[in-house]
Amino acid sequence: MESSGQKQFKSKYHILVWIALLSLALIGMVEHGYYLQNRPPFKWQIYLGLIPFSSWVVLTYLATKPKWFTTRYNVGEMYKVHRIVGVVATAMVGVHWYVYFGKAKTALGWWGGYVALVGMFIAFLVGILFLTPWFKGIATSMPRKVAVWIHRLNLVALIGANIHVHGFKRLSAMVPFLQVYDILTYGLVIYYIYWMFKKRN
Questions:
Q1: Mind listing the pLDDT tens digit for each residue in 100-158?
Q2: Which residue of 2, 84, 87, 152 is most buried, as measured by CB atoms within 10 A?
Q3: Is 0.85 topped by the overall pTM?
């Protein structure tokens, strides 16, 4: 348990549980889709994309600091886990791209993948250099507000990943995987944009 003064907070590692549960749910839907298509199961290369996607969904949602979250968890401590998860997720996306390079046969699959990869990498790089205490000397060279806006390229990366998935016929034909994937992607993007405008007012 984490504490701040007299207040007791829940474990900061709950974030890993949420990511694991979402990842398992999406992987289960994909495997169900492959079963219905009479395809071989356990496409681990796809897991390398689904797990980072799940991580980005959870991290992006928590970045809006919903009330249920801030009243139960030490947000500062959670961001320490956030940073590590971000590093691991970006590395997994790089491996996913490497093992699946050239597999996309459509423009959606190809360009969606590249948009997701580039958007995530830029957001990751800016986040690590300018939004963490790891590189204090460098961090002062860019205003925090600018770094935060660039870090929000994560939203572009999420949309790119969604387009990427739509570019694969077998994945785009899977029910309910594709519907859940779309709801997670665009529901989160719309909610985040709403939160940004609400925060400014």
A1: 767 778 888 999 999 999 999 999 999 999 888 888 777 778 888 999 999 999 999 99
A2: 152
A3: yes
Alpha helices (runs of H) in the chain, residue ranges in sequence order: 14-36, 44-62, 67-70, 75-99, 107-130, 136-139, 144-151, 153-166, 169-172, 177-200
Locate 111 and state its tokens: 């360009």
Nearest to 62 by CA among 22, 119, 92, 7: 22
The number of residues making up the chain comes to 201
Buried b (16+ CB within 10 A) or exposed e, 131-166: bbeeeeeebeeeeeeebeebbbbbbbbbbbbbbbbb
Reading the block at residue 132, the tokens are 């963490």
Dihedral Cα 52, 80, 152, 104, nearest 10 deg: -10
